[in-house]
DNA sequence: GAAATTGCTATCATTTGTGTAGCAATAGCG
DNA sequence: CGCTATTGCTACACAAATGATAGCAATTTC
């Protein structure tokens, strides 16, 4: 079982120090972790619904992420399915600005991507 | 070469929609991406210095992340080595609060880790 | 011109993620 | 009760990402 939930204070994937910020980055730096938090911020969801809203992420990964995020106290099960815990919502509040910024960033990308050659936008 | 830099508007690892936030999450959700941004926010660094400050991340991964982050316009090369671009610093401003929050979160984790059954001291 | 430093690439074992199938448990229905 | 549908999840087998290590070409320093 080489896969474990990153916890502040304990070494994590590549991080021997276990500094909180690194443990957090390790937790969030796994596929779909941020996406799951993002989706759940909108509403609680069942496993399958969450899976769909994350563009059909494979159930094995979804299950692992859920497990890790639960162990990290960021999400929990409620009546309507999985949902962000209070801590999870705190975190989401910090992440929320990324939504707008990402579209701003997308704008910059488009500028830099415009092909000087042949592509029709 | 199945590894490419996630760009808003183009499908990315698992994400077929290419929604900016998902492209961003894909970019940041790779090993050491967040850590690299975090480290560079303090000061520009050479490749090797950056590698050390990221707890000896392997050069292959570091090189890939740098490439991706450069293509994403988040970092660039300067006189003193690699550094965050203006865009990268914008992003860091949004991520910065995670530093304090992560220690707060670490506190919660410690609480939850203390054995619940042995309270009868 | 020898040594040290830097920015990488090459290689390969290990870990993670993907895609699909399917199963046990529960819920609704006649 | 039996039938069907949904849900939460596990089990693979295959693909992709990461980790660890070695080392090389191009500077810089002496």
TrEMBL record, chains A, B:
GO molecular-function term, one example from the UniProt record: DNA binding
Keyword Membrane: no
Residues forming coiled coils: none
Superkingdom of origin: Bacteria
Record bears the keyword Nucleotidyltransferase: no
Domain HTH hxlR-type positions: 19-110
Xref: InterPro entries: ArsR-like_HTH, HTH_HxlR, WH-like_DNA-bd_sf, WH_DNA-bd_sf
Transmembrane intervals: none
PANTHER family tied to this protein: HTH-TYPE TRANSCRIPTIONAL REGULATOR YODB, TRANSCRIPTIONAL REGULATOR, MARR FAMILY
Name of this protein: Transcriptional regulator
Phylogenetic classification of the source organism: Bacteria, Pseudomonadati, Pseudomonadota, Alphaproteobacteria, Rhodobacterales
């Amino acid at each position: 079982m080489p896969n474990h939930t990153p916890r502040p204070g304990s070494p994590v994937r590549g991080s021997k120090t276990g500094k909180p910020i690194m443990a957090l980055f390790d937790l969030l730096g796994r596929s779909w972790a941020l996406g799951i938090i993002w989706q759940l911020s909108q509403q609680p969801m069942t496993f399958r619904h969450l899976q769909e809203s994350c563009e059909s992420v494979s159930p094995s990964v979804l299950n692992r992420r859920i497990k890790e995020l639960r162990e990290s106290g960021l999400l929990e099960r409620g009546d309507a399915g999985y949902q962000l815990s209070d801590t999870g919502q705190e975190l989401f509040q910090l992440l929320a600005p990324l939504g707008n910024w990402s579209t701003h960033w997308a704008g910059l990308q488009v500028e830099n991507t415009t092909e000087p050659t042949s592509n029709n936008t």
